[in-house]
Amino acid sequence: MPDESDATDVADTTLTADPNCLFCRIVAGSVPSTQVYHDDDVIAFCDRNPQAPTHVLIIPRLHVAGINAPEAADGPLLAAMVRAANAVARAEGIAESGFRLVWNVGHDAGQSVFHLHLHLLGGRPLGWPPG
């Protein structure tokens, strides 16, 4: 599992969590997941309902409700998520063939867990337009 712990620290050491949030419980380790990447700021784990051969969710350790939340304007946090996505794509062997990164924002877009997360999909040709 790639570990980029020496990456630039983005988050405060007093991370906030929502005890009712599934992804916060995954970060805390109280809900199991298949982690494929972690560093001080983000973790990445396999989606439980994959839509492609590689379907990984990249989430911040810090609870942020979504990309439209004011806290999501934190450029270093978003950069950490993209860095993690690139590391996972390389580790999964899909960096050269191609992959898709997706943010779902709100119910109409299919967001079902309101904790900021980035989908990484790949391992097969992905059609356009999506949805």
Task: Lay out the secondary structure.
Layout lengths: L21 H7 L6 E4 L3 E5 L7 E7 L14 H18 L6 E4 L15 E5 L9
Antiparallel strand pairs: 1-2, 2-3, 3-5, 4-5
Describe the structure.
Helix content is 19%, strand content 19%. It is globular. It contains two helices and five strands. The chain has one domain (22-122): 2-Layer Sandwich (HIT family, subunit A), CATH 3.30.428.10. It has helices spanning 22-28, 75-92, and strands at residues 35-38, 42-46, 54-60, 99-102, 118-122. Mean pLDDT is 89; it is low at 4-15. A hairpin with a 7-residue loop joins strand 2 and strand 3 (54-60). A five-stranded antiparallel sheet has the order 1-2-3-5-4, covered by helices on one side. With 131 residues, it is an alpha+beta fold.
The coarse silhouette is globular
**The CATH homologous superfamily:** HIT-like
Radius of gyration, CA atoms, in whole angstroms: 14 Å
CATH topology: HIT family, subunit A
Mean pLDDT: 89
Fraction of residues in β-strands: 15-25%
Report the total helices.
Answer: 2
What tags apply to this protein structure?
single chain, 131 residues, 2 helices, alpha+beta
Précis, in short:
This protein is α+β, with helices and mostly antiparallel strands and 131 residues long. It is 19% helix and 19% strand. It has two helices and five strands; from the N terminus they run αβββαββ.
